[in-house]
Every structure is written in structure tokens, then in C-alpha cells.
């Protein structure tokens, strides 16, 4: 881990595409601005962990359970036929 000291208005560059700027320091909090290309996904760590847990939980659901959930949420007749065909 690289540890740096920065003051308000100073920045850190990561590669050529990411720039992190300290915009405010107040009451034990640091506000950061992040500049990057539009295709770079930037998430708070706690949000990323929440998404990972949800994805792992979704993978653990058995197909039959998922099909039952689909049927219980007002499927159309065509959806019901498709699900029942898949269960055979």
C-alpha cells in the first residue's frame, strides 16, 4: 500500500487515466473527486462488497426455486408454459 499526504486541492494520478483530487477535509472526513474515463467503473468499497454478496447469494439459488419465484410473480401464460417446459 502506498500512503501519501495530500492537502486540499492536491491530487494523485493513477496511470494516465485516473486522477484523485482532495476537495475538502472537515471533521475527520476527506472528500475526494475522481476523474477518469467514462468506461471506468468507480464504486465505494462497501457497495462493491454488497453487490458481490448479492451475486453469490443469487448463484446459490436452485433453478427450481427460481422457477417457483417466477411463477409466483404473475407470469403470463406463455412464461408459465416456457418454465414448465424447462422443468421437464
UniProtKB/TrEMBL annotation:
GO terms for cellular component: cytosol. The keyword Lipoprotein does not apply. Its main location: cytoplasm. GO terms for biological process: bacterial-type flagellum organization; mRNA catabolic process; negative regulation of translational initiation; regulation of bacterial-type flagellum assembly; regulation of carbohydrate metabolic process. Pfam families: CsrA. It is found in: Cytoplasm. It comes from the Bacteria. Keywords: Bacterial flagellum biogenesis, Cytoplasm, Repressor, RNA-binding, Translation regulation. The keyword Repressor applies. GO terms for molecular function: mRNA 5'-UTR binding. A translational regulator that binds mRNA to regulate translation initiation and/or mRNA stability. Usually binds in the 5'-UTR at or near the Shine-Dalgarno sequence preventing ribosome-binding, thus repressing translation. Its main target seems to be the major flagellin gene, while its function is anatagonized by FliW. Belongs to the CsrA/RsmA family. Homodimer; the beta-strands of each monomer intercalate to form a hydrophobic core, while the alpha-helices form wings that extend away from the core. This is Translational regulator CsrA. It comes from Acidithiobacillus ferrianus. The gene is csrA.
